[in-house]
Design goal:
With about 575 residues, the chain is an alpha/beta fold. The protein has 21 helices and 23 strands. The protein folds into three domains: about 110 residues, Roll (Urease, subunit C, domain 1); about 100 residues, Diaminopimelate Epimerase, Chain A, domain 1 (Roll), CATH 3.10.310.70; about 300 residues, TIM Barrel, CATH 3.20.20.
Length: about 575
């Protein structure tokens, strides 16, 4: 392409040339490559893309224009991770003792790490990252008598379970007389005494007594995490859960104070990420209409608007709702029984029966919709997903689609629900890297047939559903390259992906699902997500070409050498040409 798609009326501030520009748009039609490989240069003026075309764009440069020779590299829209727990990720990376697979291969090693950990000023040792899929059983027994001198709380990789030692159980007052809360399970010995494993809604019992993370600690962790995300090419994200329900999610650090801290960072021009926040009024179990009503009436939704913060930088988008749990905890709600316990699971919404819980979920979604906010609904079982879609479809005509409510994770017994989602404007945000990393365990729990159907990406795109791919960090890595590969290959640790897997998608479709498609979820497709004239200059640059489809693993060899948000360079490797 020798001429720009649109010539700027002003001298550009930045011109990138000598590479390939991928627009981020969803490929369509047989000649998919031509749609996205037709440009080699891009011009930016005043934080906006003003021209996309051939290397002739260099001639638009003035004395103050920065010219960057891509040297065969690739320009992408900035990555938009539509489900990334920013606060939880920050604390996991820079605040807690690490006991994940990279740090420990067995429970004895976990105990050794915790035994040598210094006691923080608040007197609690917090750790993160254990996973029974890699460490095996026995975690509760291993931690029970670990560190009798100090309470220890260890959060698992999924965010749905924690382990507490005896000292922590005593501090929280959890005994054999403590009842399981709504949507939660206290694992017990034969005599009824707690083992130390708390699942889903039961985590609230422990997190509620944990001291808040000091503001200075969280601020520092957030700044470090932001720099890391920019170094990976991430410019936008959805933080799915801050607010008064924080004790029921991960480590409980996503408090209203954390929500306010993000506002302070935006006001001080410290926040270069674009962040959409879902409020959390209850954690991974026990959400009720009463809790949501109280949260909505608190004024929390207007936290940033009342401060005049640019909503394109930071905004409260809606409310996160946990409708069920996860398969490995036997708390996903499925039509057919699954797992060693041969259970259907159930909704973790308040209520004593399935009928009561479904009705309560309906009231919750109506409240969110009436408030003019978006509902992000965690649903990992097919019964939970399809029930949530049915309830959303029953909202007042013409109102729900405007909110862009969406399903998080999602499991489906058939394509009918996906077509309903497309017709009703209900989005679908899912996580291929979770499927890839925990796939062997999930296959064993769900069964071969259901696992093969898990995350039906091709079916969702074919149905016209608004799909996006996200990390769910800290559950998995924020490295979007791994997510792209997982969506293309659909492999698990023990099995290569089948070449004839009907739910595989192409790498360019996966890229669109991490750039232009999540912009729809943010009500932002008119200004971000694609590299077209008039769009904000949110982009990242890879140091080489986009790999061929049959060699997509080579994407891991590509490094992000430059990232910009609104034309502002937020990551620039030393030595990259100026």
């Amino acid at each position: 392409m020798s001429t720009p798609w649109e010539a700027p009326s002003q001298t550009p501030d930045l011109v990138l040339f000598g590479g390939t520009v991928l627009t981020g748009e969803l490929p369509a039609g047989p000649d998919r490559a031509a749609q996205v490989h037709g440009a080699s240069a891009l011009a930016i003026t005043g934080g906006v893309v003003t021209a996309v075309g051939g290397d002739g764009l260099r001639h638009l440069a003035g004395p103050a224009t920065r010219l960057v020779d891509l040297r065969g590299g690739t320009v992408l829209p900035g990555i938009n991770d539509a489900h990334l727990h920013l606060v939880g990720t920050a604390m996991t990376l820079f605040g807690h003792v690490k006991i994940g697979a990279a740090a420990a291969a067995n429970w004895d090693q976990v105990v050794g790490i915790l035994g040598n950990s210094p006691v923080p000023p608040d007197g609690w040792i917090r750790a993160h990252g254990w996973d029974s899929a890699t460490l095996g059983p026995g975690g509760a027994q291993a931690l029970a008598q670990c560190r009798q001198d100090v309470p220890v709380v260890a959060f698992d990789q999924t965010g749905h379970q924690l382990l507490a030692n005896a000292a922590a159980l005593r501090r929280a007052g959890i005994t054999d007389a403590t009842h399981d809360p709504d949507g939660g399970v206290i694992e017990r010995h034969a005599d009824g005494s707690p083992t130390g494993l708390l699942q889903d809604g039961a985590a609230v019992l422990m997190n509620s007594v944990l001291p808040d993370v000091p503001r200075t600690v969280l601020h520092s962790a957030l700044l470090k995490t932001q720099a890391l995300l920019h170094a990976r090419g991430i410019t936008s994200l959805t933080e799915p859960g801050l607010g008064p329900g924080s004790p029921g999610l991960f480590d409980g650090s996503g408090t209203t104070g954390a929500l306010e801290l993000l506002g302070d960072m935006a006001a001080a021009d410290e926040l270069s990420l674009r962040v959409a926040v879902l409020m959390l009024f209850a954690g991974t179990g026990g959400v009720s209409a009463a809790a949501v009503r109280r949260g909505l009436s608190s004024g929390l939704a207007g936290t940033y608007l009342s401060r005049g913060i640019d909503p394109r930088r930071l905004a409260v988008a809606g409310v996160k709702v946990f409708s069920d749990g996860i398969p490995r905890s036997n708390t996903a709600w499925m039509h057919e029984p699954y797992g060693a316990k041969c259970t259907h699971g159930h909704l973790v919404v308040a209520g004593d029966t399935d009928e009561e819980r479904v009705a309560e979920l309906g009231r919750i979604l109506a409240l969110i919709d009436d408030a003019g906010l978006q509902a992000g609904i965690h649903a990992t079982g097919d019964a939970a997903t399809e029930t949530a879609v049915e309830l959303l479809s029953g909202l007042a005509p013409g109102r729900g689609p405007e909110r862009r409510h969406y399903i998080i994770h999602g499991a489906f017994s058939g394509n009918e629900t996906l077509h309903t989602m497309a017709r009703r404007g209900i989005g679908y945000s899912t996580n291929p890297l979770i499927r890839a990393t925990a796939g062997d365990l999930m296959r064993g729990v769900m069964g071969e047939e259901r696992f093969a159907r898990h995350q039906p990406l091709r079916s969702a795109l074919s149905a016209g559903a608004a799909v996006n791919l996200a990390s769910d960090s800290p559950v998995t890595s924020t490295d979007w390259r791994r997510t792209i590969i997982a969506a293309v290959r659909r492999a698990t640790p023990s099995r290569a992906g089948a070449a004839n897997d009907p739910e595989r998608i192409t790498s360019l479709e996966a890229l669109a699902a991490m750039t232009s498609l999540p912009a729809w979820q943010d009500h932002a497709e008119t200004y971000k997500g694609t590299l077209r004239p008039g769009m904000v200059a949110d982009l990242c640059v890879l140091d080489g070409p986009w790999p061929d489809e049959n060699r997509i693993e080579e994407l891991m060899e590509r490094q992000v050498v430059l990232t910009a948000v609104g034309g502002q360079i937020v990551h620039d490797l030393s030595g990259w040409p100026a």
